[in-house]
Structure to design on (569 residues):
């Protein structure tokens, strides 16, 4: 099956991958964590979900595949309305990578952990083998398949968690602060994986506090007080000091530098990464 | 942590850390022997038959037969024998205790030593030795099951053996998932204990330096954060399983399938013969 033909995949922003209509949730009905939330995420879009701790980001993504039951409203994933009957199908359409990879492992070895999801899809052995080799190879963990998860580094564990999700070939992948426990090198590696996934047409919804990850995405949803406080591009977010403060965020270095250069009369746009910043500035150095 | 990890035995590769040596039981050791390749169901049945053979052995020739059989099968797994001996080592004091109790309480047969009203008898010595040999063989030899089978395969075999119980409403899948998750959480909980101990030590409450009574009190206070942490991790694991579409008793395909071959039948037959011989001798 062609990756772009999969359910929920399209490099162009076409039909909606996720639609929320007046969704509310609260453990205590008197104090809802989310109230009347409505939004649409088109297929193939890379969205950052930001907000201060306790703003309901993790709750929102758990509602999307019914890990928590919504109190009110309507959730549609890739054209399928979330209900008791559609839970399994929707969970196969949405993949979730959690914050702490240590708590995600079910299998005794990396291979067993990846196979856990595939066996649930009732795939043939040949298909499981194909997906195992394909996605482990793509994310560079082919040499780790026989290892116990406890033997892996933080970055390797997170790669395994991502492979175990990608092998199920979901249309939408949610990252719940997946880089927060990683070192800088592993975080950069994860960002490269996200860029590749976006290029392949995955819809990505990523909870993050990392400015570089926000900058690399296409759209930012800011949650505050149980509602949507902002729906904008990363550049618009970084130009909103009030919202940045509210979400406890700092602008990335590349962004800050480009703003200062712009003030000095050197407009270079908004580089998506420090590497892109260097590439943008390099011609100016050569022309001197 | 070492549980469930396939390792290469000493001599073939560098040895693992000291912690691994202390937790030998439940660790598979890959050598590619014929026993490793057997269906886990045949190994489970074989071990049950071995237990029966041990219980049927009531004489020195039967004990000798059991010992020879155990050594031959253990050698054929190509796992160094000291690994089997190490598996039984944690029970050495229990075996000594059983031997002493038998020796002191059984007053049958010829008296071997008499000091006043105190006497040691031949039957006490014999039954004590039998009990020690039985316990030793039972623990050392049944370690073969976990040495030659990964926990996942063992669970699959257990599920296969228990599958006839589906007719009475028992869910083998639920049972084996429960067992595998319980085993998976042993290192997790040990990690959690270490984290809490270190957190308390960093605030000046070092467990190793406390008197025994204080140590006991401190361990009780450990329970709350450790249990809370274990529940939190369990919740995360459930989210991870459910997010991957897992539902109890829903149909699943298998990547590693169970295959019963002639070697499995031969393996079972060996243990049946052993049981019959042990009972006759």
């Amino acid at each position: 099956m062609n990756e772009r033909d999969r359910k929920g995949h399209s490099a162009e922003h076409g039909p909606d991958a996720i639609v929320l209509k007046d969704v509310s949730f609260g453990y205590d009905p008197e104090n809802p964590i989310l109230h009347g939330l409505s939004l649409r995420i088109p297929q193939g879009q890379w969205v950052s979900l930001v907000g201060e701790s306790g703003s309901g980001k993790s709750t929102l993504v758990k509602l999307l595949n019914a890990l928590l039951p919504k109190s009110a409203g309507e959730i549609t994933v890739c054209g399928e309305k979330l209900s008791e009957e559609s839970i399994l199908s929707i969970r196969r359409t949405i993949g979730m990578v959690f914050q702490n990879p240590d708590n995600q492992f079910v299998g005794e070895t990396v291979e067993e952990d990846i196979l856990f999801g595939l066996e649930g899809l009732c795939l043939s052995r040949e298909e499981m083998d194909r997906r195992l080799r394909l996605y482990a190879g793509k994310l560079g963990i082919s040499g780790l398949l026989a290892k116990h998860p406890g033997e892996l580094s933080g970055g390797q564990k997170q790669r395994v968690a991502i492979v175990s999700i990608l092998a199920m070939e979901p249309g939408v992948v949610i990252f719940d602060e997946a880089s927060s426990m990683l070192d800088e090198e592993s975080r950069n590696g994860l960002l490269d994986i996200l860029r590749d996934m976006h290029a392949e047409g995955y819809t990505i919804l990523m909870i993050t506090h990392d400015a570089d990850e926000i900058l690399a995405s296409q759209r930012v949803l800011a949650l505050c007080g149980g509602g949507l406080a902002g729906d904008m591009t990363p550049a618009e977010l970084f130009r909103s000091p009030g919202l940045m403060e509210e979400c406890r965020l700092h602008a990335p270095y590349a962004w800050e530098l480009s703003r200062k250069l712009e003030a000095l009369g050197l407009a270079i746009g908004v580089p998506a990464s420090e590497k892109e910043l260097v590439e943008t500035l390099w011609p100016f150095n050569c022309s001197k | 942590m070492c549980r469930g990890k396939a390792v290469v035995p000493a001599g073939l590769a560098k040895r693992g850390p000291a912690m691994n040596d202390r937790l030998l039981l439940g660790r598979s050791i890959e050598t590619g022997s014929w026993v490793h390749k057997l269906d886990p169901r045949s190994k489970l049945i074989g071990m049950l038959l071995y237990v029966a053979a041990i219980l049927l052995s009531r004489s020195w020739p039967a004990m000798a037969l059991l010992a020879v059989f155990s050594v031959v099968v253990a050698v054929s797994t190509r796992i160094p024998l000291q690994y089997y001996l190490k598996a039984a080592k944690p029970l050495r004091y229990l075996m000594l205790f059983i031997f002493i109790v038998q020796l002191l309480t059984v007053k049958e047969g010829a008296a071997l030593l008499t000091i006043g009203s105190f006497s040691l008898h031949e039957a006490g010595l014999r039954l004590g030795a039998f009990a020690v040999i039985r316990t030793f063989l039972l623990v050392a030899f049944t370690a073969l099951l976990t040495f030659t089978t990964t926990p996942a395969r063992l669970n699959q075999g257990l599920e296969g053996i228990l599958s006839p119980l589906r007719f009475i409403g028992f869910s083998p899948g639920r049972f084996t998932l429960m067992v595998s998750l319980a085993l998976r959480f042993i290192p997790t909980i040990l990690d959690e204990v270490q984290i809490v101990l270190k957190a308390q030590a960093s605030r000046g409450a070092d467990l190793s330096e406390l008197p025994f009574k204080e140590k006991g009190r401190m361990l009780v206070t450990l329970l709350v954060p450790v249990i809370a942490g274990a529940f939190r991790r369990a919740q995360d694991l459930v989210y991870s399983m459910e997010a991957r579409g897992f539902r109890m008793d829903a149909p699943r395909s298998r990547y590693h399938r169970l295959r019963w071959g002639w070697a499995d039948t031969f393996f079972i037959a060996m243990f049946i013969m052993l049981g019959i011989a042990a009972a006759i001798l």
Notes: Chain B has a mean pLDDT of 82.
